[in-house]
Write a structure and sequence with these properties.
Chains A, B: GO terms for molecular function: DNA binding. The structure is a homodimer of 187-residue chains. By secondary structure, the first copy, chain A, is mainly α. In chain A, 79% of the residues lie in helices and 0% in strands. In chain A, helix 4 (53-78) packs antiparallel against helix 5 (81-95), helix 4 (53-78) packs parallel to helix 8 (118-138) and helix 8 packs across helix 9. Chain A starts with 9 loop residues before the first helix and ends with a helix. The structure holds a DNA duplex (30 and 30 nucleotides).
Chain lengths: 187, 187
Amino acid sequence: MSALRTLYERADVVPLLAEIFRELGFEGATLSRITERTGIGKGSLYHFFPGGKEEMAAAVLAEVDTWFEQFVYEPLRRDDPAEAIAAMWKNADAYFRSGGRICLVGAFALDETRERFATTINDYFQRWIDALAGALVRSGRPASEARAAAENAVLGIQGALVLSRALDDKALFKRALDQMAKRLITS
Amino acid sequence: MSALRTLYERADVVPLLAEIFRELGFEGATLSRITERTGIGKGSLYHFFPGGKEEMAAAVLAEVDTWFEQFVYEPLRRDDPAEAIAAMWKNADAYFRSGGRICLVGAFALDETRERFATTINDYFQRWIDALAGALVRSGRPASEARAAAENAVLGIQGALVLSRALDDKALFKRALDQMAKRLITS
DNA sequence: CTAGTTGTGTACTGATAGGTACAATGCGTT
DNA sequence: AACGCATTGTACCTATCAGTACACAACTAG
Protein backbone atom coordinates (compact mmCIF):
# COMPACT_ATOMS: atom_id res chain seq x y z
CA MET A 1 0.00 0.00 0.00
CA SER A 2 2.77 2.40 0.94
CA ALA A 3 4.96 4.04 -1.71
CA LEU A 4 8.62 3.17 -1.51
CA ARG A 5 10.70 5.79 0.20
CA THR A 6 14.41 6.14 0.33
CA LEU A 7 16.11 6.07 3.68
CA TYR A 8 19.09 8.35 4.09
CA GLU A 9 21.65 8.91 6.72
CA ARG A 10 23.40 12.17 7.46
CA ALA A 11 26.56 11.24 5.59
CA ASP A 12 24.58 10.70 2.37
CA VAL A 13 22.91 14.07 2.60
CA VAL A 14 25.95 16.31 3.03
CA PRO A 15 27.34 15.90 -0.51
CA LEU A 16 23.91 16.63 -1.98
CA LEU A 17 23.65 19.78 0.10
CA ALA A 18 27.15 20.76 -0.98
CA GLU A 19 26.19 20.86 -4.64
CA ILE A 20 23.12 22.94 -3.90
CA PHE A 21 24.96 25.51 -1.81
CA ARG A 22 27.59 25.70 -4.52
CA GLU A 23 25.06 26.38 -7.23
CA LEU A 24 22.69 28.66 -5.33
CA GLY A 25 24.80 30.22 -2.59
CA PHE A 26 23.74 30.30 1.04
CA GLU A 27 20.86 32.75 0.62
CA GLY A 28 19.72 31.25 -2.66
CA ALA A 29 19.54 27.75 -1.22
CA THR A 30 16.03 27.80 0.19
CA LEU A 31 14.57 24.85 2.04
CA SER A 32 12.02 24.27 -0.68
CA ARG A 33 14.69 24.25 -3.40
CA ILE A 34 16.74 21.83 -1.32
CA THR A 35 13.83 19.42 -0.92
CA GLU A 36 12.91 19.87 -4.55
CA ARG A 37 16.38 19.10 -5.92
CA THR A 38 17.31 16.32 -3.51
CA GLY A 39 13.93 14.75 -2.94
CA ILE A 40 14.67 14.83 0.78
CA GLY A 41 11.84 16.24 2.84
CA LYS A 42 11.97 18.79 5.60
CA GLY A 43 11.34 16.06 8.14
CA SER A 44 14.60 14.35 7.29
CA LEU A 45 16.59 17.55 6.91
CA TYR A 46 15.64 18.88 10.33
CA HIS A 47 16.17 15.43 11.79
CA PHE A 48 19.79 15.40 10.59
CA PHE A 49 20.41 19.12 11.05
CA PRO A 50 18.33 20.45 13.95
CA GLY A 51 20.12 23.77 13.59
CA GLY A 52 18.51 24.27 10.18
CA LYS A 53 20.16 25.83 7.16
CA GLU A 54 23.11 27.16 9.09
CA GLU A 55 23.95 23.71 10.42
CA MET A 56 23.58 22.25 6.93
CA ALA A 57 26.07 24.76 5.53
CA ALA A 58 28.41 24.21 8.45
CA ALA A 59 28.33 20.46 7.84
CA VAL A 60 29.14 21.00 4.18
CA LEU A 61 32.04 23.30 5.01
CA ALA A 62 33.35 20.76 7.51
CA GLU A 63 33.32 18.04 4.87
CA VAL A 64 35.07 20.28 2.34
CA ASP A 65 37.69 21.08 4.95
CA THR A 66 38.22 17.40 5.75
CA TRP A 67 38.68 16.57 2.09
CA PHE A 68 41.32 19.23 1.54
CA GLU A 69 43.08 18.39 4.79
CA GLN A 70 43.34 14.76 3.77
CA PHE A 71 44.14 15.03 0.08
CA VAL A 72 45.96 18.35 -0.16
CA TYR A 73 47.24 19.93 3.04
CA GLU A 74 48.47 16.82 4.82
CA PRO A 75 50.38 15.52 1.75
CA LEU A 76 51.95 18.96 1.34
CA ARG A 77 53.23 18.76 4.91
CA ARG A 78 54.24 15.12 4.86
CA ASP A 79 55.25 13.94 1.40
CA ASP A 80 58.00 14.82 -1.02
CA PRO A 81 57.32 18.50 -1.77
CA ALA A 82 57.59 18.33 -5.56
CA GLU A 83 55.26 15.34 -5.71
CA ALA A 84 52.77 16.83 -3.26
CA ILE A 85 52.65 20.10 -5.17
CA ALA A 86 52.08 18.28 -8.44
CA ALA A 87 49.32 16.28 -6.76
CA MET A 88 47.79 19.51 -5.45
CA TRP A 89 47.32 20.87 -8.96
CA LYS A 90 45.93 17.57 -10.17
CA ASN A 91 43.53 17.31 -7.23
CA ALA A 92 42.40 20.91 -7.58
CA ASP A 93 41.57 20.35 -11.23
CA ALA A 94 39.68 17.17 -10.39
CA TYR A 95 37.87 18.55 -7.34
CA PHE A 96 36.71 21.68 -9.09
CA ARG A 97 35.85 19.68 -12.22
CA SER A 98 38.06 21.89 -14.37
CA GLY A 99 36.10 24.95 -13.35
CA GLY A 100 32.69 23.31 -13.60
CA ARG A 101 32.35 23.41 -9.84
CA ILE A 102 33.10 26.42 -7.71
CA CYS A 103 34.85 26.67 -4.36
CA LEU A 104 32.14 27.01 -1.74
CA VAL A 105 34.53 28.50 0.78
CA GLY A 106 35.62 31.20 -1.65
CA ALA A 107 32.04 31.96 -2.62
CA PHE A 108 30.97 32.28 1.00
CA ALA A 109 33.88 34.66 1.58
CA LEU A 110 32.51 37.18 -0.90
CA ASP A 111 29.16 38.14 0.61
CA GLU A 112 27.79 38.56 4.11
CA THR A 113 27.71 34.78 4.51
CA ARG A 114 31.33 35.31 5.51
CA GLU A 115 30.27 36.67 8.91
CA ARG A 116 28.55 33.39 9.76
CA PHE A 117 31.53 31.20 8.97
CA ALA A 118 34.43 33.62 9.28
CA THR A 119 36.82 31.41 11.22
CA THR A 120 36.11 28.31 9.13
CA ILE A 121 36.75 30.28 5.95
CA ASN A 122 39.87 31.87 7.36
CA ASP A 123 41.28 28.52 8.52
CA TYR A 124 40.64 26.79 5.22
CA PHE A 125 42.76 29.25 3.26
CA GLN A 126 45.32 29.88 5.99
CA ARG A 127 46.11 26.18 6.32
CA TRP A 128 46.31 25.78 2.56
CA ILE A 129 48.79 28.66 2.25
CA ASP A 130 50.82 27.48 5.24
CA ALA A 131 51.03 23.92 3.97
CA LEU A 132 52.02 25.02 0.48
CA ALA A 133 54.56 27.57 1.69
CA GLY A 134 56.09 24.87 3.92
CA ALA A 135 56.41 22.49 1.00
CA LEU A 136 58.07 25.21 -1.08
CA VAL A 137 60.60 25.86 1.69
CA ARG A 138 61.35 22.15 1.99
CA SER A 139 61.91 22.05 -1.75
CA GLY A 140 64.66 24.63 -1.35
CA ARG A 141 62.79 27.87 -1.96
CA PRO A 142 63.84 30.77 0.29
CA ALA A 143 61.33 31.36 3.05
CA SER A 144 61.13 35.02 2.08
CA GLU A 145 59.59 34.11 -1.28
CA ALA A 146 57.66 31.01 -0.29
CA ARG A 147 54.73 32.66 1.42
CA ALA A 148 54.00 35.10 -1.42
CA ALA A 149 54.33 32.31 -3.97
CA ALA A 150 51.90 30.15 -2.00
CA GLU A 151 49.38 32.98 -1.66
CA ASN A 152 49.65 33.53 -5.36
CA ALA A 153 48.91 29.92 -6.21
CA VAL A 154 45.88 29.70 -3.92
CA LEU A 155 44.53 33.03 -5.10
CA GLY A 156 45.10 31.98 -8.67
CA ILE A 157 42.87 28.95 -8.28
CA GLN A 158 40.08 31.09 -6.85
CA GLY A 159 40.46 33.62 -9.64
CA ALA A 160 40.47 30.90 -12.27
CA LEU A 161 37.19 29.58 -10.88
CA VAL A 162 35.59 33.02 -11.06
CA LEU A 163 36.84 33.77 -14.54
CA SER A 164 36.14 30.40 -16.09
CA ARG A 165 32.59 30.52 -14.79
CA ALA A 166 32.13 34.12 -15.90
CA LEU A 167 33.28 33.26 -19.40
CA ASP A 168 31.78 29.78 -19.24
CA ASP A 169 35.11 28.43 -20.42
CA LYS A 170 36.56 25.34 -18.78
CA ALA A 171 39.56 25.36 -21.08
CA LEU A 172 40.62 28.64 -19.51
CA PHE A 173 40.63 26.98 -16.11
CA LYS A 174 42.93 24.17 -17.18
CA ARG A 175 45.20 26.53 -19.08
CA ALA A 176 45.47 28.85 -16.07
CA LEU A 177 46.24 25.99 -13.71
CA ASP A 178 48.95 24.63 -16.00
CA GLN A 179 50.57 28.01 -16.24
CA MET A 180 50.44 28.55 -12.48
CA ALA A 181 51.88 25.11 -11.84
CA LYS A 182 54.85 25.87 -14.07
CA ARG A 183 55.40 29.31 -12.56
CA LEU A 184 55.27 27.96 -9.03
CA ILE A 185 58.20 25.63 -9.47
CA THR A 186 60.35 27.68 -11.87
CA SER A 187 60.17 31.32 -10.74
CA MET B 1 3.89 70.09 9.82
CA SER B 2 5.65 67.72 7.43
CA ALA B 3 8.99 66.14 8.32
CA LEU B 4 11.81 66.90 5.90
CA ARG B 5 12.36 64.20 3.36
CA THR B 6 15.15 63.65 0.91
CA LEU B 7 14.43 63.71 -2.80
CA TYR B 8 16.46 61.36 -4.90
CA GLU B 9 16.87 60.75 -8.55
CA ARG B 10 17.74 57.48 -10.20
CA ALA B 11 21.40 58.34 -10.64
CA ASP B 12 21.80 58.89 -6.89
CA VAL B 13 20.29 55.55 -6.04
CA VAL B 14 22.42 53.27 -8.21
CA PRO B 15 25.68 53.66 -6.23
CA LEU B 16 23.83 52.96 -2.98
CA LEU B 17 22.32 49.83 -4.48
CA ALA B 18 25.74 48.80 -5.72
CA GLU B 19 27.19 48.66 -2.23
CA ILE B 20 24.26 46.64 -0.95
CA PHE B 21 24.45 44.06 -3.74
CA ARG B 22 28.17 43.82 -3.16
CA GLU B 23 27.78 43.16 0.54
CA LEU B 24 24.73 40.92 0.46
CA GLY B 25 24.73 39.34 -2.99
CA PHE B 26 21.69 39.28 -5.26
CA GLU B 27 19.63 36.88 -3.17
CA GLY B 28 20.70 38.38 0.14
CA ALA B 29 19.73 41.89 -0.92
CA THR B 30 16.06 41.89 0.04
CA LEU B 31 13.85 44.89 -0.57
CA SER B 32 13.47 45.51 3.15
CA ARG B 33 17.23 45.46 3.70
CA ILE B 34 17.64 47.87 0.81
CA THR B 35 15.12 50.32 2.24
CA GLU B 36 16.58 49.86 5.70
CA ARG B 37 20.17 50.57 4.68
CA THR B 38 19.51 53.36 2.19
CA GLY B 39 16.50 54.96 3.79
CA ILE B 40 14.83 54.89 0.37
CA GLY B 41 11.31 53.55 0.48
CA LYS B 42 9.70 51.01 -1.79
CA GLY B 43 7.69 53.76 -3.41
CA SER B 44 10.81 55.41 -4.75
CA LEU B 45 12.59 52.19 -5.63
CA TYR B 46 9.74 50.89 -7.78
CA HIS B 47 9.32 54.34 -9.24
CA PHE B 48 12.94 54.31 -10.50
CA PHE B 49 13.11 50.59 -11.23
CA PRO B 50 9.68 49.30 -12.27
CA GLY B 51 11.28 45.95 -13.05
CA GLY B 52 12.07 45.44 -9.38
CA LYS B 53 15.19 43.85 -7.97
CA GLU B 54 16.35 42.50 -11.29
CA GLU B 55 16.25 45.95 -12.88
CA MET B 56 18.09 47.39 -9.88
CA ALA B 57 20.89 44.84 -10.24
CA ALA B 58 21.01 45.38 -13.99
CA ALA B 59 21.36 49.14 -13.46
CA VAL B 60 24.20 48.56 -11.04
CA LEU B 61 25.98 46.22 -13.44
CA ALA B 62 25.56 48.76 -16.23
CA GLU B 63 27.15 51.46 -14.13
CA VAL B 64 30.04 49.21 -13.16
CA ASP B 65 30.55 48.39 -16.81
CA THR B 66 30.54 52.05 -17.77
CA TRP B 67 33.12 52.87 -15.13
CA PHE B 68 35.53 50.17 -16.28
CA GLU B 69 34.98 50.99 -19.92
CA GLN B 70 35.85 54.62 -19.28
CA PHE B 71 38.71 54.33 -16.83
CA VAL B 72 40.28 50.98 -17.71
CA TYR B 73 39.33 49.41 -21.04
CA GLU B 74 39.29 52.51 -23.20
CA PRO B 75 42.67 53.78 -21.91
CA LEU B 76 44.13 50.31 -22.51
CA ARG B 77 43.00 50.51 -26.13
CA ARG B 78 43.89 54.14 -26.71
CA ASP B 79 46.79 55.31 -24.55
CA ASP B 80 50.42 54.38 -24.29
CA PRO B 81 50.30 50.71 -23.27
CA ALA B 82 52.80 50.86 -20.40
CA GLU B 83 51.06 53.87 -18.89
CA ALA B 84 47.58 52.44 -19.34
CA ILE B 85 48.61 49.15 -17.74
CA ALA B 86 50.13 50.96 -14.79
CA ALA B 87 46.95 53.01 -14.47
CA MET B 88 44.90 49.79 -14.57
CA TRP B 89 46.64 48.43 -11.48
CA LYS B 90 46.28 51.73 -9.70
CA ASN B 91 42.61 52.05 -10.61
CA ALA B 92 41.87 48.46 -9.64
CA ASP B 93 43.41 49.01 -6.22
CA ALA B 94 41.44 52.21 -5.75
CA TYR B 95 38.14 50.87 -7.11
CA PHE B 96 38.23 47.74 -5.00
CA ARG B 97 39.46 49.74 -2.01
CA SER B 98 42.48 47.50 -1.59
CA GLY B 99 40.29 44.46 -1.22
CA GLY B 100 37.73 46.14 1.03
CA ARG B 101 35.19 46.04 -1.77
CA ILE B 102 34.46 43.04 -3.93
CA CYS B 103 33.84 42.78 -7.65
CA LEU B 104 30.10 42.49 -8.11
CA VAL B 105 30.48 40.97 -11.55
CA GLY B 106 32.79 38.26 -10.25
CA ALA B 107 30.49 37.54 -7.30
CA PHE B 108 27.46 37.23 -9.58
CA ALA B 109 29.41 34.84 -11.76
CA LEU B 110 29.78 32.33 -8.95
CA ASP B 111 26.19 31.41 -8.14
CA GLU B 112 22.97 31.00 -10.11
CA THR B 113 22.72 34.79 -10.39
CA ARG B 114 25.00 34.20 -13.36
CA GLU B 115 22.09 32.88 -15.43
CA ARG B 116 20.22 36.19 -15.07
CA PHE B 117 23.10 38.34 -16.27
CA ALA B 118 25.21 35.89 -18.25
CA THR B 119 25.97 38.07 -21.25
CA THR B 120 26.70 41.18 -19.17
CA ILE B 121 29.10 39.19 -17.00
CA ASN B 122 30.73 37.58 -19.99
CA ASP B 123 31.20 40.89 -21.77
CA TYR B 124 32.70 42.64 -18.78
CA PHE B 125 35.53 40.14 -18.48
CA GLN B 126 35.92 39.50 -22.18
CA ARG B 127 36.40 43.18 -22.95
CA TRP B 128 38.83 43.55 -20.07
CA ILE B 129 40.95 40.67 -21.30
CA ASP B 130 40.80 41.83 -24.92
CA ALA B 131 41.78 45.38 -24.05
CA LEU B 132 44.66 44.27 -21.85
CA ALA B 133 45.93 41.71 -24.35
CA GLY B 134 45.82 44.38 -27.04
CA ALA B 135 47.87 46.74 -24.91
CA LEU B 136 50.42 44.00 -24.25
CA VAL B 137 50.78 43.32 -27.97
CA ARG B 138 51.22 47.03 -28.68
CA SER B 139 53.91 47.12 -26.03
CA GLY B 140 55.85 44.50 -27.98
CA ARG B 141 54.70 41.30 -26.36
CA PRO B 142 54.16 38.38 -28.79
CA ALA B 143 50.47 37.83 -29.47
CA SER B 144 50.85 34.16 -28.57
CA GLU B 145 51.65 35.07 -24.97
CA ALA B 146 49.55 38.22 -24.61
CA ARG B 147 46.17 36.58 -24.21
CA ALA B 148 47.26 34.16 -21.49
CA ALA B 149 49.10 36.94 -19.66
CA ALA B 150 45.99 39.12 -19.78
CA GLU B 151 43.75 36.32 -18.53
CA ASN B 152 46.19 35.76 -15.72
CA ALA B 153 46.14 39.37 -14.61
CA VAL B 154 42.35 39.62 -14.63
CA LEU B 155 41.94 36.31 -12.87
CA GLY B 156 44.56 37.34 -10.35
CA ILE B 157 42.58 40.40 -9.32
CA GLN B 158 39.48 38.29 -8.80
CA GLY B 159 41.43 35.76 -6.78
CA ALA B 160 43.06 38.46 -4.71
CA LEU B 161 39.62 39.83 -3.84
CA VAL B 162 38.41 36.41 -2.72
CA LEU B 163 41.50 35.62 -0.69
CA SER B 164 41.90 39.00 0.95
CA ARG B 165 38.29 38.92 2.07
CA ALA B 166 38.55 35.32 3.23
CA LEU B 167 41.60 36.15 5.35
CA ASP B 168 40.33 39.65 6.11
CA ASP B 169 43.73 40.95 5.03
CA LYS B 170 43.91 44.04 2.84
CA ALA B 171 47.70 43.99 2.87
CA LEU B 172 47.55 40.70 0.98
CA PHE B 173 45.53 42.38 -1.74
CA LYS B 174 48.04 45.16 -2.27
CA ARG B 175 50.98 42.75 -2.12
CA ALA B 176 49.36 40.44 -4.66
CA LEU B 177 48.57 43.31 -7.04
CA ASP B 178 52.14 44.63 -6.84
CA GLN B 179 53.53 41.23 -7.62
CA MET B 180 51.15 40.70 -10.53
CA ALA B 181 51.95 44.14 -11.94
CA LYS B 182 55.67 43.31 -11.95
CA ARG B 183 55.16 39.90 -13.46
CA LEU B 184 52.93 41.24 -16.21
CA ILE B 185 55.57 43.54 -17.64
CA THR B 186 58.71 41.44 -17.02
CA SER B 187 57.85 37.82 -17.77
C1' DC C 1 -0.14 80.98 -7.64
C1' DT C 2 -1.72 77.44 -9.99
C1' DA C 3 -0.93 72.86 -13.14
C1' DG C 4 1.61 69.15 -14.14
C1' DT C 5 5.26 66.16 -13.29
C1' DT C 6 8.32 63.74 -10.42
C1' DG C 7 9.04 61.63 -6.22
C1' DT C 8 7.58 59.43 -1.66
C1' DG C 9 5.24 57.00 2.51
C1' DT C 10 1.82 53.76 3.86
C1' DA C 11 -1.00 50.03 3.56
C1' DC C 12 -1.94 46.29 1.31
C1' DT C 13 -1.50 41.67 -1.57
C1' DG C 14 -0.45 36.60 -2.35
C1' DA C 15 3.45 33.69 -2.21
C1' DT C 16 7.17 31.81 0.06
C1' DA C 17 10.62 31.92 3.67
C1' DG C 18 12.59 29.03 7.73
C1' DG C 19 11.08 26.30 11.29
C1' DT C 20 7.98 23.10 14.40
C1' DA C 21 4.91 19.18 15.65
C1' DC C 22 3.81 14.79 15.23
C1' DA C 23 1.84 10.62 13.52
C1' DA C 24 3.25 7.09 10.53
C1' DT C 25 6.74 4.28 8.38
C1' DG C 26 10.66 1.17 7.87
C1' DC C 27 14.58 -1.38 9.85
C1' DG C 28 17.51 -4.09 13.19
C1' DT C 29 17.14 -6.66 17.10
C1' DT C 30 15.39 -10.17 19.89
C1' DA D 1 6.20 -11.19 15.44
C1' DA D 2 6.87 -7.45 18.35
C1' DC D 3 9.83 -4.03 20.29
C1' DG D 4 12.41 0.30 19.91
C1' DC D 5 14.64 3.71 17.43
C1' DA D 6 15.93 6.11 13.31
C1' DT D 7 13.83 8.24 9.54
C1' DT D 8 10.18 10.55 6.88
C1' DG D 9 5.72 13.03 4.96
C1' DT D 10 2.23 16.25 6.00
C1' DA D 11 0.14 19.95 8.03
C1' DC D 12 0.84 23.89 10.12
C1' DC D 13 3.04 28.29 12.20
C1' DT D 14 4.69 33.17 11.97
C1' DA D 15 7.68 36.29 9.56
C1' DT D 16 9.17 38.05 5.57
C1' DC D 17 9.45 38.04 0.61
C1' DA D 18 8.69 40.81 -3.99
C1' DG D 19 5.48 43.56 -5.79
C1' DT D 20 1.09 46.83 -6.24
C1' DA D 21 -2.00 50.76 -5.36
C1' DC D 22 -2.60 55.17 -4.47
C1' DA D 23 -2.99 59.40 -2.02
C1' DC D 24 0.03 62.85 -0.93
C1' DA D 25 4.21 66.02 -1.05
C1' DA D 26 7.71 68.62 -3.44
C1' DC D 27 9.76 70.76 -7.19
C1' DT D 28 9.25 73.08 -11.99
C1' DA D 29 7.05 75.82 -15.49
C1' DG D 30 3.95 78.92 -16.94
